[in-house]
Amino acid sequence: MNLINSGHWLKWPVVAVPVAALVAPLSFVLWPAPPGATAPPPSVLPALVAIAVVIPALSFGVGVAFALFGRPLIDGGVSPALSRATYLSVAWLLLNWWPHSNFHRVASGWQSIIAIDFAFHTTVIVASVVVAAYCLESARGRAAAA
């Protein structure tokens, strides 16, 4: 499926950009700074906002677009279960950074950070293994067909 030539790619930024614009400020509503948290120095604030808020929000927006439009991109060249798991894994790999980054921003202490890292990093590793299995299985299928 050639999405570039068909014009179907246009709907992705139409979804991703507004979603990102919505969730970036929502970060501070859903995850307010803890009481007594020190503000970062003004010199690092632009980089911090970009890294901790804007980039994860953009990834989340692309993840929403992928969840809406990406299923056909995960072709049926592999088992249906692996295709479904890959679709969910790619969606998670794109969506998870917004909550992950915000939980880190408001974490209080090592126990919180360990819990956040365990929950998010473990699932990212599992999702990455699923995507790798999909890639290997797809490559084997193409090699067998050639």
Short key terms for the protein model shown above:
single chain, 146 residues, mainly alpha, globular
Query: Whole-number average pLDDT?
Result: 89
Query: What is the general shape?
Result: globular
- The H/E string reads HHHHHH
Number of domains: 1
Strand composition percent: under 5%
What low-confidence regions span 5 or more consecutive residues with pLDDT below 50?
Answer: none
Radius of gyration: 18 Å
Count of DSSP-assigned helices: 6
Proportion of helical residues: over 70%
Count of β-strands:
0
User: Structural class of the helices, strands and pairings?
Assistant: mainly alpha
Distance between the termini: 19 Å
Main sheet record: none
Give a verbal description of the structure.
The chain is an all-alpha fold and 146 residues long. The protein has one domain. 76% of the residues lie in helices and 0% in strands. The chain is built from six helices and no strands. The protein has helices at 3-6, 11-30, 45-69, 80-95, 97-106, 110-145. It is globular and about 60 Å long. The two termini are 19 Å apart.
